[in-house]
Design brief:
This protein is of the alpha/beta class. It has 20 helices and 18 strands. The strands form 4 sheets. It has a 5-stranded mixed beta sheet with strand order 4-5-8-6-7, with helices on both faces. Helix 15 links the parallel strand 14 and strand 15. Bound molecules: S-adenosyl-L-homocysteine. S-adenosyl-L-homocysteine (SAH) binds next to helix 5 and strand 8.
């Protein structure tokens, strides 16, 4: 079970298996952030059904489940919510049993209770509701028309899944079978995510109101007196970035912290990577330098990617962190320091601000050699500044920036003008904008991480709404909050 949408709602056991599996077979409603947890070399296979697609891919999915497991691989079948709540989990488990493949069921947080909870609606409440029934308006893959009337009488709270198209018919049946037409009801689309949309009405008006508001699947409808508690219990929608769509243009490898922090503030985060990280054209210079690291007085890392790529390369040269034993290390920025710590080393110097001048001041004047493993064709200023202070600098490429490849759905949202705020985290994200994403369908507010990014944005003809201070992820999040406050609601 992947949980209902918010990636934080997967269970500890679920996450553990996801991080260690060889293959993940996943459905449409599974959060992209969860797929990012899977090992880089694991297979990610979409086996879901897109809306509008009439035939289910169940057979394909079943066949893959059995064949991948039979190869001896550890397979995660990741399903939205709980696998045993309208999830076909039991059918797939039976199939595995028939094929003598061992399995484990990891329950999930079901949308039946979590989606109402994120809308401020408890499914039970002392004095208001002592029972709840979860029903489906439509059985997935089948034409069965569940008999809602027999369930509707006893339970105080009704939770209706998969029922957007049938909502009117179901509401009518519920009223015919004795439920009060004036009973409070709410329909919640994309609950627990930044796209959450809630429509409140009464049993006899909810279908019409949901249709008028353009509610589409996935949506959950809840009927009963507990719906009125929403007035005092709303919480998720009160977050400062709720209702705002924020684009993150960083490469996917380095965007997790920013994405998580924006999501926690309620934003609907659209991943729109405008740059990606690739191998440099040649490793020759880097390899030569890495083989004789003790010749350098300092190694300067200016980005987390520089650290990650340098260590990956060291490993492939059958070296490890001990190669840095005689060398001091400077890191520009907290993320860079953090990545270094991840490899077991602490930085000797982390300049307060990300400027060449500050870094040179930290290193002081010197006669020795400095290794600067960084992006291919990086800006010349830091190298010039170090050279002017007497250092002999080896500027070697350990990665290159290439244009990003955003997911087509997210790209469409950009083109449709469905982005309120766009964050730029380097000058190259700005310069790649036109080529990778094209013009936005509206004019989103522009937020930049620092002065050189801001300059690039202004040169590209963009108005800059806010610049991060300090020039790091925390500062960027504050700048997004600032920009969001400046928007009319
Ligand atoms: N196994 C899942 C349910 C699968 S049926 C679970 O336990 O949650 C799919 C239905 O679940 C959707 O049609 C919708 O009614 C509901 N649903 C799933 N995710 C949802 C979400 N984020 N917001 C609202 N409803 C959701």
């Amino acid at each position: 079970g992947a949980g209902p949408g918010d990636p934080g709602l997967i269970t500890v056991r679920g996450l553990e298996l996801l991080r260690t599996c060889d293959v993940v077979l996943y459905d449409r409603l599974v959060a992209a952030e969860l797929l990012a947890e899977v090992k880089a070399d694991a297979e990610r296979i979409f086996v879901g059904k897109n809306p509008g697609q009439t035939h289910s891919r169940q057979l394909v999915s079943d066949a893959l489940l059995v064949s991948k497991a039979s190869e001896g691989k550890s397979v995660v079948r990741l399903k939205g919510g709980d696998p045993f709540v309208f999830g076909r989990g039991a059918e797939e488990a039976a199939l595995l049993r028939a094929s003598s493949i061992p399995f484990e069921i990891v329950p999930g947080v079901t949308s039946a209770t979590a989606v109402p909870a994120y809308a401020g609606i408890p499914v039970t409440h002392r004095g208001l509701s002592a029972s709840f029934v979860v029903l489906t308006a439509r059985e997935e893959g089948g034409d069965a028309d569940p008999d809602v009337s027999k369930l509707s009488v006893g339970a105080e709270t009704l939770v209706l899944l998969m029922g957007v198209a049938a909502l009117e018919k179901i509401a009518r049946r519920l009223i015919e079978s004795g439920r009060d037409p004036q009973e409070p009801a709410a329909t919640i689309e994309w609950g627990t995510t930044g796209k959450q949309k809630v429509v409140v009405g009464e049993l006899d008006t909810i279908a019409e109101k949901a249709a008028a508001s353009g509610i589409r699947p996935p949506a959950t409808t809840i009927v009963g007196p507990v719906v009125s508690l929403r007035d005092s219990l709303t919480w998720f929608e009160d977050r400062p970035l709720f209702g705002r769509t924020v684009a993150v243009t960083r490469p996917p490898q380095g965007s997790r912290e920013l994405t998580t922090r924006l999501s926690r503030l309620g934003a609907d985060v659209v991943s729109l990577p405008l740059i990606d990280i690739a191998e440099p054209d040649s490793w020759a210079a880097a390899d030569e330098a890495l083989a004789k690291l003790s010749d350098y007085s300092w190694v300067v890392f200016a980005s987390m990617h520089a650290v990650a790529k340098t260590f990956a390369r060291l490993r492939s040269l059958e070296l490890d962190a001990r190669a840095f034993a005689h060398t001091k290390i400077a890191c520009v920025g907290e993320r860079t320091r953090h990545e270094l710590a991840h490899h077991g080393l602490s930085a000797d110097l982390v300049p307060e601000r990300f400027t060449s001048a500050e870094m040179v001041a930290g290193l002081g004047d010197g006669l020795g050699r400095v290794l600067f493993p960084r992006v291919q064709d990086g800006p010349p200023e830091p190298v010039t500044a170090l050279t002017e202070h007497g250092w002999q600098v080896d500027d070697v490429a350990v990665y290159s920036n290439i244009p990003g490849k955003p997911d087509p759905t997210n790209l469409q949202r950009w083109v449709d003008g469905d982005v309120d705020i766009v964050t730029f985290t380097s000058a190259s994200t700005v310069t790649n904008l036109a080529a990778v994403a094209g013009h936005p369908g509206s004019s989103p507010l522009v937020v930049c991480i620092g002065p050189s990014t801001e300059r690039a944005a202004r040169e590209a003809g963009l108005d800059v709404a806010a610049v991060a201070e300090p020039h790091d992820t925390g500062g960027l999040v504050d700048a997004v909050l600032h920009a969001a406050r400046s928007m009319q609601s």
